[in-house]
Design brief:
This protein has 39 helices and no strands. The chain is globular, with a radius of gyration of 30 Å. The relative contact order is 0.05.
Length: about 700
């Protein structure tokens, strides 16, 4: 309901209203208590409509302000700010934030100080500080930056971090022992930038000139930028090394074929590095052509020949791009890259290849025939080259354990390998996700539901409801400002223990804000409330629509949870809508197939959306012979792609096929739909058993 929190505003205004008790309390010690209460009730009933009207005015002003921000209308923002301040609206801070954010380039430090004092401890205070730190960095106002940065609580903006590292360098803080740490941190931040931004570019340029960052760092930055298709960042990194190379870098990024055919990059270390970038760029378009060019380079003149280490890196990238295109040669390219690297490096030295590249070497190996004895060695080698934190991800724990088991069975591993693999599987089996369930099955166990936590006490529930940030978040969501509400909600959750998270999740569940219910509950570690994480909204409708088309309701629930988090009016950027995120063409096509009179404006109606979505999912599932993995991939990426992903490869298990899906979003989606469906099946079975026990008690009673 839109105004379920309007009474918060009313309560906030009571202190400014005349005290009703002062005017109705009778004189004398024998007052009629009943009359007092009736009079008090009458006064409050008169006050409530006025408060509701004030809340409505405030709500409208908030929405007008958000629209004015989108239009960059300074006058409308100023008027809305005045309106919400006059109404003492609980979201006044957001309107003030939008108004100040819209003119941040002209703002001065005292205005920001005043805002921080008025809204201390809130999300918008820290959000504005993030924006202001970026603005101070662009202004090169390091004095105010130094003062503001320690107050930045979220500290999750990479560009701000780059500015902070630059200031640390300019200040020369610390002693000689801290210099290596500064270099390591600065290098990591620079290499991780998503695109060319002022903060990281300025930091890199300054530290490169100061010889804190080296040419090797810059070439690595250029490689990572080319790999992730960020040509501007790649050109900037090359220009740091030698501005005269800018034109050559621009040409090879724009037309790598012409560059490779001309061989006009010159000899020496810089020419070889540019040649590597050209081969990488070409591999992204045509791995086979890049492989042929790489073979020609390897057998060419000494001046054109790459070092063995650079050849290894080039082949590693060819392997990644071939794996993305699911070419059978991908694994062979990867093995060749590793052989070259072993010949060029010291024992135990890991190559400077990205986590994503190494992951695609694993996926290339997983698509090889089961009879290929070398596939598991490649899986194991690529995972062991990943950073330690990445190796602990359940995905790679699982596949490394599988590789260890397979190699132990083939006699390639020593004693204890099977025990080590079992220990690894046991470490991830308690996890609720896709690979936790696979590990449980591999251990010969059956995945079950975790123990239900103790019920929340009234005091725990009340504590969550008293948090202003959660109340504001729900009010923002009620007003249709979901993005702002989600950010406010998540900020308020910082630092919460499990029981606090469960209480916050429960409030969201009761308000039927299902995405916050699920996502908040998923943050707990020791105490897991499976009914919060996997709620059953629209239960009767889902069961009926699933039964009508012969679909397992657990599958339907598993897909809806991933598609929309049960937000009935959810709309994606590409036009998908409703609980099952139907595209307009899909909805029309399905309605025609099943003979339903359909109007586009009804697509977010739960009944209509579930009817069309269930019918479409059942058709897709039947088309793929009942394979839920392929049906889920088709639902997300279109039916043509999973067929192509199935062609030309070896027969493989569903887990390996799902892991090798070339689209990151679809790969994650498929694994989560499969995992969700298992959990919903267990929940629905549990509910059925409970219903049966209840029926038995009634029959016996």
């Amino acid at each position: 309901m839109k105004h379920t929190l309007w009474h918060n505003a009313a309560c906030a205004n009571l202190s400014a209203m005349p005290n009703p008790l002062r005017h109705i309390w009778p004189h004398g010690p024998l007052a009629d208590l009943r009359g007092v209460l009736l009079a008090l009730l009458g006064s409050l009933m008169l006050a409530l409509p006025a408060a509701a009207a004030a809340a409505q005015i405030g709500d409208d002003a908030v929405l007008q302000a958000r629209d004015a921000l989108r239009k960059k209308d300074k006058a409308a923002l100023a008027n809305a700010r005045m309106a919400v301040n006059n109404s003492r609206h609980p979201l006044a801070m957001w309107v003030e934030y939008w108004e100040l954010q819209n003119r941040l380039a002209q703002a001065q430090q005292p205005e920001l100080d005043g805002f921080a004092a008025r809204w201390a401890g809130t999300y918008v205070e820290d959000r504005l500080r993030n924006d202001w730190l970026l603005e101070l960095g662009r202004r090169r106002d390091w004095t105010n930056f130094r003062a503001e940065y320690p107050r930045f609580r979220m500290n999750d903006d990479r560009e701000v971090s780059c500015y902070a590292l630059l200031v640390q360098h300019l200040d020369g803080t610390g002693d000689a022992t801290s210099a290596p740490q500064l270099r390591t941190t600065a290098r990591t931040a620079w290499l991780a930038q998503r695109d060319l931004d002022d903060g990281c570019a300025l930091m890199a340029r300054t530290l490169f000139e100061a010889k804190v960052l080296t040419a090797d760092d810059a070439w690595q930055a250029a490689r990572l930028a080319v790999e992730s298709n960020r040509p501007r960042a790649a050109k900037a990194a090359v220009a740091l090394i030698n501005p005269a190379l800018s034109d050559a870098a621009a040409e090879l990024l724009d037309n790598p074929v012409r560059t490779l055919q001309r061989r006009g990059l010159g000899s020496g270390a810089q020419g070889h590095e540019l040649l590597l970038l050209a081969l990488m760029r070409m591999a992204a378009n045509d791995p086979d052509y890049a492989a042929g060019q790489l073979q020609a380079v390897a057998s060419g003149s000494t001046a054109q020949r790459l070092s063995m280490a650079l050849q290894a890196t080039a082949w590693a990238h060819v392997a990644k791009q071939a794996a993305l295109k699911q070419q059978p040669a991908a694994a062979e390219h990867a093995r060749h890259a590793w052989q070259l690297w072993d010949s060029a490096s010291k024992p135990g030295m890991q190559p400077p290849w990205s986590e994503d590249l190494l992951a695609w070497h694993v996926r290339a190996a997983l698509r090889q025939p089961a009879a290929d004895a070398q596939r598991w060695a490649l899986v194991q080698r690529a995972i062991e080259a990943m950073p330690a934190a990445e190796q602990h991800d359940a995905t790679w724990v699982y596949w490394k354990a599988r590789a260890t088991q397979a190699r132990a069975g083939a006699g390639a591993e020593g004693d204890g390998a099977r025990a080590a693999a079992r220990t690894a599987l046991e470490s991830i089996a308690p996890q609720q996700g896709f690979y936790g369930k696979l590990a449980t099955e591999d251990l010969g166990q059956r995945a079950g539901l975790p123990a239900t936590p103790l019920p929340l006490a009234a005091a725990e529930r009340d504590a969550a409801r008293k948090l202003p940030g959660l109340a504001r978040a729900l009010q923002l969501i009620d007003l249709g400002l979901r993005s702002e509400g989600v950010r406010e909600w998540n900020f308020t959750l910082r630092g919460m223990a499990d029981r606090e998270l469960l209480a916050a999740a429960q409030w969201a569940c009761e308000r039927e804000v299902w995405d916050r219910c699920i996502n908040t509950s998923e943050r707990t570690r020791a105490e897991i409330d499976i009914q919060q994480r996997f709620p059953l909204p629209y239960r009767e409708q889902v069961l009926a629509k699933a039964q009508a088309v012969g679909l397992d309701p657990a599958v339907l629930y598993g897909l809806i949870r991933q598609e929309s988090r049960f937000i009935a009016d959810a709309r994606s950027g590409v036009g998908a809508a409703g609980l099952m995120q139907l595209m307009p063409a899909t909805a029309r096509w399905t309605a025609k197939k099943i003979g339903v009179d359909y109007r586009a404006e009804t697509v977010t109606d739960p009944q209509v959306n579930l009817q069309l979505g269930a019918a479409y999912l059942k058709r897709v599932l039947d088309d793929f012979g009942g394979s839920l993995a392929m049906a889920a991939a088709a639902y997300n990426a279109g039916p043509g792609r999973p067929r192509r992903w199935r062609e030309g490869g070896a027969v493989m298990e569903a887990a390996a096929w799902a892991e090798s899906i070339p689209f990151n979003e679809t790969r994650d989606y498929v694994k989560k739909v499969l995992s969700n469906s298992v959990d919903y099946a267990a929940l629905l079975r549990q509910e059925m058993r409970q219903d049966m026990r209840q029926d038995m008690r009634q029959d016996m009673g």
